[in-house]
Amino acid sequence: MVERLSLRLRILLFFAALAVGAVAALGLGLWFAVQRAADPALRDTLVPVVVQGVIIAAFMIVALVVWVWYLFDTNVARAIDRLARAIRARTHAEIDRDLTREAEGARYLGDLAPAAQEVTRSLAQTRNALAESVARETTRLAAEKARLETLLADVPVGVLLCTAEHQLVFYNGQAVDLLGSGQAPGLDRNLLDYLREGPVRHAYQRLFDAGDADMASDLLCATANGARIFAGRMRVLRRREAGGAPGYVLTLRDVTQDLAAHASRDALLAEIFERVRRPAANLQTVIGVLSELPDRPGGKPDLSAAMLDEVQALTRAITDLGARYDAIQTDWRPLVQTRSTDLMDSLKARFGAEGLSLNVTDGPALIVQVDGFEIVALLGWLAGRLATEGLAQGFEIALIEEDGPGAVLRLEWVGTALPVGRLDQWLTEQLGPDTGELTARAVLQTHGTEIWPEKTEPGCGAVAMPIRAARRAGRRPPPIARAVVYDFELLSKARNAAVADARLEDLTYVVFDTETTGLSPASDSIVQIAAVRLVNGRRLESEVFDTLVDPGRAIPPLSTDVHGITDSMVRGAPRIEAVGAQFHRFAQGAVLVAHNAPFDMEFLRRNEAGIGARFDNPVLDTVLLSAVVFGQLEEHSLDALTARLGITIPEEARHTAIGDTIATADAFLKLVPMLKARGLNTFGEVLSEVRRHGRLLKDINAPETKDTSRG
Amino acid sequence: MNADTPDRKRILVVEDEDNIAIALDYLMTREGYEQHRIASGAGAVDLIRKMRPDLVLLDVMLPEVSGYEICQNVRMDPELEGVKILMMTARGSAMERRKGLAMGADGFISKPFELKALRAEVRRILSGEPAPEAKAGPGTARHG
Fold it and tell me: What is the CATH number of the domain that holds B44?
């Protein structure tokens, strides 16, 4: 019982007992002395004098004890308390700052503070030495890991790795592009939030039932909103020793456009039959009738008008459909936007490999839609053929921009002009051993184009080949930051049905901060929401929510002074209804964490009706967690907390929503091991301890703890 | 053949398909032209040199020698400068048309064509008007 009381309280009780004991002993001693007086008259005279003396002495004793207690409390009990917390912080939260400040307050504790200082210094040194050697060892592994990450990030398909429950464990940049319309995927989120679940579940079940780790299953699946269609391939991971259903790898390729091209091709084909069949059938009937005419006595009907009508319908159909076929045929080919400089560079390399010289004429930088490999193979082969036949020596190539959407590739050479008949004959040949059975004619068909000899100066020859789609190249866009995001430990993470029973490190957290037009949730509005996700004890750099909100009213200058957000910054930003819904999706399934959470939660909850969703996530407040760990007497502002935990907020990020959010998140990550050191391991344990410390949280977390984890 | 009538324009049809050749023969004669025909591409250039037609109605897809080749050979012969060429093709994509015009054809017409369009094109070429702008825009360059 006594052990549960704090040190200071115990010392207070000890001194109180001392005072009471001393006064009682004094009273008792004098009472005995008076009793022993032989003369009763003397005894009666002495009693009031003694009582008076005892009262005065008692006051003096109590005053003395209180004074000693005060000195003891200030210089011993509080100093020990502060020192103990500081040691704990250094032990569990890995803070390296020296104990000098705490030692200053503990100067009456003899050698304790210097000894503690030595211990923590030695701990920090050992930790640093260990960290250094670990860092050295991991550098090599990290380099290898980075190479693999780059490799996976550049795979041209979306790659996802999921647990058996479809929680994301790994995804690459292409997967973000594919799934990220409106909401980017996040670690530990459910894949079925992004894809329609039927095909994914069925493919998994097929593979799971087959039990063959080498087997893969192809599937066609659409995004949840049906806007995009992917061709996918799923492979189940090898079953883990520990048991449990294995996860799977899913690769996705966007086939929306392919399917649309197929559909338009099918539609055109259907229309050809539809429009040709009718006039052809009519024509057959009319001609049939005409052939029988000589046998018919009497008048001869004039069927030539009817025949002409049908033939004209046929002609129009074929001309019109032919033009449409011509227009869309390159849509079906896998042509790629290629920079003219890259194409020319490849051509130079190819000509060089064939032992031919190629001069590239300067022209505007264009982006052409071609299969670069095929075009290079075609022109390289043609030049080789010309050289072998002795028709050409030095080559020059130019890409000439046209007025319309196209361009012309013109290959010129010194030597003899090429007759078109000979060129056409060559075009039926195969391009070479590297390209299999690919012929020059096939390349031209793929690109919907032709090639022909052009007129030149005497002693020269040239061919021209139009490229159907070409446009001026803008500035080369900055390289897209491709990254892979993963945490393979999620594969083996235990999932508790109830949040209350979940271990702190197993939960997913969304740490957030709002900036507002003022302090009153009733009359003020949100102007910015920033949030980060913490998964498996790690802040995910790539999963950040940071959005300005148009409050629909002027921002008071006093508020602008605090957060720096002005009216012009929020002009054109989305309203809270849209941002709130996005944030709700971002925070789905996570515990919400904020510094002074009731303030931010109240602002969110007042907008629930407009957002169309309820923020019923469990909530933790870092103010209260700080009170649990560091005691009520310390200051719990974000600045004080981060300073205590050795976290530095960059000056430019201070008091911005995202800067404060990141600081809060990092503080929270350091508080978790300190909570665990106090025996608070599960969310439920933390919650009941927090409730002892603050009346606030009762308002935030609904009466019973919500179950938000996925089963 | 009415070779002795000096003011009649002379047209040579190079076409291997008999049905269309018969129809063209009828049509051109009725239009008042003097009409000749050769079914193969092989002797076409020699015949053109010999008879110096005002216009050659030239099919692209011919056995042995293609229409493009005949066109190029005619254009390479300075003596045949005044011979106009109207190419005909059953495929008739915009790119084929550009190729035909690049080979020196004065016009390009896709089969099937309407007689009205063919008549207009023949008249245009014989009167010496230039061909309309030949561009590679998908599906735009179509004649007839």
Answer: 3.40.50.2300
**Has residue A140 been placed in a domain?**
no
Q: From start to end of A315-405, where are the E strands?
A: 336-339, 358-360, 366-370, 392-401
Residues A680 and A595 grouped into a single domain:
yes
Interface test with A, best of B77, B93, B115 (most A CBs within 10 A): B93
Residue A326 shares a structural domain with residue A340: no
Inform me whether the pLDDT recorded for B28 exceeds 50: yes
Residue B88 lies in a domain: yes
Question: Exposure of A175 by Cβ count < 10 A (0-12 exposed, 13-18 middle, 19+ buried)?
Answer: buried
pTM of the model: 0.52
Q: Which domain holds residue A628?
A: 494-700
In this structure, what CATH number is given to the domain that contains residue A326?
3.30.450.20
> Per the structure, how many domains does chain B have?
1
Mean pLDDT, to the nearest integer, of A10-27?
91
Distance between A359 CA and the closest CA of chain B, angstroms? 24
DSSP state of A682: B
Helix axis angle for A622-630 and A657-677, nearest 10°, is 40
Same domain, A325 and A397: no
CB contact at 8 A, A248 and A237? yes
Reply yes or no on whether the pLDDT at A389 is more than 60. yes
- Inter-CA distances, B23 with B28, B47, B91, Å: 9, 21, 20
Residues A435 and A564 in one domain: no
Residue B132 covered by a domain: no
Instruction: Determine whether A253 is exposed, middle or buried from the number of CB atoms within 10 Å of its CB (0-12, 13-18, 19+).
Output: middle
Q: Do A409 and A500 sit in the same domain of this protein? A: no
For residue A710, being part of any structural domain is answered with no
The rounded distance, in Å, linking the Cα atoms of A88 and B134 is 84
Residue type, A426: W
CB A283 within 8 A of CB A347: no
Per-residue pLDDT averaged across A104-120, rounded?
84
Are A450 and B139 within 8 A, CB to CB? no
Residues of B in contact with A311 (CB under 8 A): 112
pLDDT band at A405 (very low <50, low <70, confident <90, very high): confident
pLDDT at A676 over 60: yes
Token couple for A414 = 């010194």
Residues A347-356, mean pLDDT to the nearest whole number: 89
A556 and A681 within one domain: yes
Interchain CB distance below 8 Å, A466 and B72: no
Q: Is the pLDDT of residue B1 over 80?
A: no
Q: Which of A604, A490, A487 is nearest to A540 (CA)?
A: A487
Say whether residue A421 is in contact with chain B using an 8 A CB cutoff.
Answer: yes
Give residue B47's domain range. 10-126
> Domain for residue B120, yes or no?
yes
Total number of domains in chain A: 4
In terms of domains, do A453 and A509 share one? no
Read off the pLDDT of residues A188-224 as tens digits, 9 standing for 90 and up. Answer: 888 888 888 888 998 898 888 887 777 888 888 888 8
pLDDT over threshold 70, residue A239: no
Residue A632 pLDDT grade (very low, low, confident, very high; cuts 50, 70, 90): confident
Task: Tell me which residue in A323, A419, A420 faces B139 most closely, judged by beta carbons.
Answer: A323
**pLDDT given at position A575:** 92
Which residue in chain B is spatially nearest to A330 when comparing CA positions?
Answer: B138
More reliable by pLDDT, A186 or B141: A186
Q: Does residue B144 belong to any structural domain of this protein?
A: no
Amino acid at site A532: V
Q: How far is B30 from chain A (nearest CA, A)?
A: 18
- Do A447 and A505 fall within a single domain? no
ipTM (interface pTM): 0.83
Q: Which among A402, A452, A468 has the least Cβ separation from residue B99?
A: A452
Q: What CATH code is carried by the domain that includes residue A431?
A: 3.30.565.10
Mind listing the pLDDT tens digit for each residue in A458-502?
Answer: 889 999 999 988 888 766 555 555 566 777 766 666 555 577 888
